[in-house]
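Issue: ligand-bound run for iron/sulfur cluster - logging full I/O for the record.

Environment: standard queue, default settings, no custom constraints.

Inputs:
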Amino acid sequence: MKVLLLYPKYPDTFWSYKHALSFIHKKASLPPLGLLTVSSMLPEVWEKKLVDLNVRELKDEDIENADMIMISAMIVQKDSVKEIVERVKDFDKLIVAGGPLFTSQYGEFPDIDCFVLNEGEITIPMFLHDLEKGDMKRIYKSDRRPDITKTPVPEWKLIKQKDYASMAIQVSRGCPFSCDFCDIIVMNGRVPRYKTPSQVITELDSLYYSGWRSAVFIVDDNFIGNRKKVKEILVEISKWMEQHNRPFCLSTEASITLADDIELVNLLKASNFSGVFVGIETPDEESLKECGKHQNTGKDLKEKVKLLQRNGLEVKGGFIIGFDTDNMHSFQKMIDFIQESGIVTAMVGLLHALPKTELYRRLLKDGRILSQATGNNTDSTLNFIPVIDKDTLVFGYNRVLHTIYSPKNYYRRLITYLDEYKEFAKGSKINLMIKIKAITKAVWIMGLSEKGRTHFWNMIFWTLFHKPELISEAITQSVYGYHYRRVMLNKAIS
Ligand code: SF4
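Outputs:
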């Protein structure tokens, strides 16, 4: 069997990092980890080829040479999936699909022959068993949560690692919290399941021996969902990092409760973590209670962020506008929080009611759902009727984006962050030659051509004078800022 694994294109969003990647000659930020793992679950004798449409084009001969096309996608890749299916259906190949998009919306894809849904460790063997017997069903699904200690190492050889800014691994699935807008707990459950420490080390080894020496993102829903287990794993990672001269800069996603546990923070430091994405959502206590984000209430969120920054973790923050308790003051409150906390990368999105979430159920019951979510919560669309006037909400949202991503506020925020931040992680996120070229291009664009260059130079001179050791971090963050301005401001204005 010859199988073609297809990964659809991402739109130009906050997460695509498209405009920043051009500085470092990379084509995509992360590889398609799900498909690489699925590939390892397929029979060894199958011939496998992977085309990630984010790094190269799909050629007719790729399709002609395959017996089966396998597509994996998230909701945000829906448009690209539709284009792919339209194209490949004329080739009369077996089309099989899986991943979050299809798990929630498979009914929208009549031209796909078979859906292998939910977690692949359960449904892929079911599919393979029936395929071999010549009795393939249209849909394979299961509510069972697999033990991921048996999940194989991703098949790295199917990609060119140099196309990507970072590699990715998964250590756990699931999150113990119950934020009502979150579809992760719908897909992966509320009991975190972890790989074993030795399994995680095997995955790091696999990347190390494939030649990779750069950033590695741990794609977990909430890396610290079970603190006891994650500490056991981190003890092993920290030893491995020491033995291998810290070849990877790690980052992940975690709840703000990380800042309550200094032992855990120290273990992250020892394991060469340089950053963490945290769902802050809103500085407003009432809105946090409304969405069930109780783990963020009753604490000084700004101080928690700064504690992480002082311990060498750049905090990227997720923020949401559009809760029922939001009001006319919420916009300025959010701007002030983001500026004062020094969260340089603040991913501010409009609330989206994702299928099967508690939020979706509540809004559906109240007759407030308007359409399916696009999966891109920064495109200024709403799929439900908000409490405050829709135009006021979208206008206020756009004002937040314009304010925080204006060069003046972005570089001011960057200074606030650099002032607090201490760098502990060793090893470069990118190689030296690429770094030099990126710096030259950054200076040319942000320092000489772009509007707001005075603010760029103010920030650069501040860094050289106060924290010269962070000049590389200052330029990296400036490049991200360029990407955010291109993506967010253009979309918000239109
Ligand atoms: S903490 Fe994050 S992953 Fe966990 S339920 Fe809330 S939004 Fe979802």
